[in-house]
Design brief:
heterodimer; A: 394 residues; two-stranded antiparallel ribbon; 67% helix; globular; B: 311 residues; mainly alpha; two-stranded antiparallel sheet; 11 helices; 4 strands
Chain lengths: 394, 311
């Protein structure tokens, strides 16, 4: 008995050494990469450079000119997909009803802007609050059954939201026509959203992009903080083995509900931003294809990583908006017909290529599910570590 | 029209609505109950059934899509409805067998979210293929000539004959499937597999053949639903996904794996729709989801579902 305290002290010392050793063995680059400050800083730089690289940099060729708005849209859907992935990739719950939160927030933001205040920040807050609240209610009902039932129930209640907006609430939502009365004021009462940023418009374009980009950075920071906190660890524990998490005394149901609410909140932020982006809320934002799209984005980009879904959103929207406009698939790739042709007589591989984009995306999606469960981001990581091995690192 | 006549008419309409859901839901339910495989592509099987039925029953004129590009503007066999009712389920049965072997079987051991994602992706692919082949427009799937008229019923007065046929065909098919599951050795194995697959395997019964058949039968039912339900709605590539969501609700309300549950759930949803269409049309679609929510809050395993044996 008397040596027990000594033992404990030893144990504590041991743990200390283990941690220290582990830290010493970690290459400094990896430690930097893991740190929150680095993640946020890198995201900020990436978000700031993104529209320039995407739409204006001379290297990307004429194909992308004039797609500044697409860059904004990609960030909005990126936030949506990132929040969705907090649920699917980290807690292991597949929701097919996230359109309810995206659409709900979009409508709430629109109605709020028309009736209460047109300040962008308040509009976003109103939409997000509405989404968080409805996520709590829908989560409460849907989480009564786990696994597949959860997917089916979220799908069903998402559709319910669609039909609510379509008909019983048509007086508020505008029914089939969507909500057209969105009013938008100046950001902080000073900056008009559609005006270019003075001096920086070559880089980031309009104030609208600055607003969306700023919120995207905040969202990444928040998601990163959640995932690296003990709370986020519990989410992962639930994904790995729900029963075991239950046995160690965690209230799994509560954590799942919280994960659902958090991801619904992200969807709400994105939905409100979408209202600000388009100044119009289409009824289709409630339809279950919207939920399907975010599922595709997250899986395509890679679930279980912070940035994968954002990449997935980018790829999806790029294909949807640009590749679908390509009439002929030629070798070498020449882009939409009105832009410069690199070769006099390119070889036509497929005529009417644009019409196939959905099919091709579907096939790629199936292939990713079967072959690369970690998506594009997982592929990046694998290639990265392979390169590092080649370079003589670990 | 008297109140009684109106009530009976609404009830019959509900029965007919529910019948289609029952046909789709039974397939979903037995596949989900027995194989533990969630098939989001089940609506795609319905879609295949409808288009195949359309092709067999009449000549359709294709104006856009790949078929038109290739020069096949009028296609169809004009064989009539009864052959379609035999051929289409056989074709979709074969599709179901292929699906079990090459899609479902490799995924039995993967997490159910992967199964959902895979079948969801497949559903998109099938839908897009049909869109490319036939174009996005809607076709009119005519009722068979012998059932296109009105019939005189005692209380109701005139009633569309076709709706009665739908109820009749569905009843016959359900009885057939019920007999198959409840009174044959095959059904015994399937039911046992639904309750506890591991125990059945331990008893020395190989489940792969019954699993194949269950998937085939489930798919064939979706095919029947496609042919029978085809004339009710306009036929376009989206009908598969449109039928999927209410059918899943039927499964969840009735209880997974239970045929009587699927019938009960289908009738409940059909009647709810019909009553609300008559009383408060703008709430008709919302009503079925409210119904599902109420049932689930009261009885999470569904009305006739059994608590699963935890592995």
């Amino acid at each position: 008995m008397s040596d027990e305290p000594t033992e404990t002290a030893d144990a504590a010392e041991d743990t200390g050494t283990v941690v220290e050793r582990a830290e010493r063995q970690l290459p400094s680059w990896e430690r930097v990469r893991e740190s929150e400050l680095f993640v946020v800083a890198a995201t900020t730089v990436a978000v700031a450079l993104f529209p320039w690289l995407f739409a204006r940099a001379p290297v990307v060729s004429g194909v992308l000119q004039g797609y500044q708005d697409l860059a904004t849209l990609i960030l909005i859907w990126g936030i949506f997909a990132m929040g969705f992935n907090l649920l699917l990739g980290y807690t292991g719950l597949l929701s097919f009803g996230h359109a309810a939160f995206w659409g709900g927030a979009a409508y709430a933001a629109g109605v709020f802007s028309a009736n209460v205040s047109s300040s962008p920040i308040l509009v976003i807050l109103a939409g997000t609050a509405f989404a968080a609240l409805s996520a709590w209610v829908l989560g409460f009902v849907s989480l009564r059954r786990g696994g597949i039932y959860f997917a089916i129930l979220t799908l069903a209640f998402g559709q319910m939201a669609y039909y609510m907006a379509l008909s019983p609430l048509a007086g508020i939502t505008g029914g089939e026509n969507g909500f057209t009365g969105v009013e938008l004021g100046k950001l902080f009462g000073v900056f008009e959203l559609r005006y270019p940023v003075p001096g920086l418009d070559w880089l980031v374009g309009t104030w609208k992009y600055v607003l969306v980009g700023g919120i995207a950075v905040l969202c990444v920071a928040a998601a990163n903080r959640i995932l690296h906190s003990p709370y986020g660890m519990v989410f992962r524990a639930i994904r790995e083995n729900e029963q075991r998490a239950e046995f160690v005394g965690l209230n799994v149901w509560r954590y799942k509900l919280m994960a659902f609410v958090i991801s619904g909140t992200f969807a709400g932020i994105a939905g409100s931003l979408f209202t600000i982006y388009s100044a119009y809320v289409p009824l289709s934002s409630f339809y279950w294809t919207t939920s399907g799209e975010v599922v595709i984005m997250a899986v395509l980009g890679g679930v279980g990583s912070l940035f994968g879904p954002i990449v997935g959103a980018g790829v999806y929207l790029y294909v949807e908006n640009i590749v679908s406009g390509v009439q002929q698939l030629t070798l070498p790739f020449t882009g939409p017909a009105e832009y410069l042709t690199l070769v006099e007589e390119p070889v036509v591989i497929l005529d009417g290529f644009g019409a196939y984009w959905h099919l091709i995306l579907g096939l790629v999606f199936v292939a990713v599910v079967v072959l690369f469960p970690r998506g594009i981001w997982g592929l990046f990581e694998d290639v990265g570590s392979a390169l590092r091995r080649l370079g003589g690192g670990r | 029209m008297s109140v009684l006549a109106e009530v009976v008419t609404v009830a019959l309409n509900g029965l007919q609505q529910g019948a289609i859901y029952v046909l789709v839901a039974i397939g979903l339910s037995i596949i989900l109950g027995t194989l533990k495989f969630v098939n989001f592509a089940h609506g795609a099987l319905y879609l295949i059934g409808t288009y195949a039925g359309l092709l067999i029953t009449l000549e359709i004129n294709v104006t856009d899509g790949k078929l038109a590009d290739w020069g096949y503007t009028p296609i169809g066999l004009e064989w009539g409805f009864l052959p379609a009712l035999v051929i289409v389920p056989s074709v979709v049965f074969a599709v179901g067998l292929l699906m079990e072997r090459f899609v479902a079987r490799p995924f039995y051991d993967r997490p159910d979210t992967d199964q959902i994602l895979l079948t969801f992706g497949l559903a998109i692919v099938v839908q897009e293929v049909f869109k490319i082949l036939f174009g996005g427009q809607s076709y009119n799937f005519a009722r068979p000539g012998w059932a296109s008229g009105q019939v005189d019923l005692p209380i109701v007065g005139t009633f569309p004959e076709w709706r009665l046929y739908i109820i009749g065909i569905t009843a016959a098919v359900v009885v057939l499937v019920y007999g198959l599951i409840e009174y044959t050795d095959f059904g015994l194995v399937v039911r046992a597999g639904t309750r506890d697959a591991e125990m059945v395997e331990l008893l020395g019964i190989k489940l792969s053949r019954p699993y194949l058949m269950v998937f085939g039968v489930g798919a064939a039912l979706a095919g029947v639903a496609g042919v029978v339900g085809g004339p009710l709605y306009a036929v376009n590539p989206n009908i598969g996904t449109e039928i999927l969501v209410p059918s899943f609700l039927v499964v969840v309300i009735g209880g997974v794996g239970s045929i009587t549950g699927a019938v009960l759930g289908g009738i409940l949803i059909g009647e709810t729709l019909a009553i609300l269409v008559a009383v408060a049309p703008q709430w008709s679609q919302v009503g079925i989801y409210v119904l599902a929510a109420i049932v689930l809050l009261a009885r999470p395993q569904g009305l006739l579902g059994v608590e699963e044996v935890t592995p």
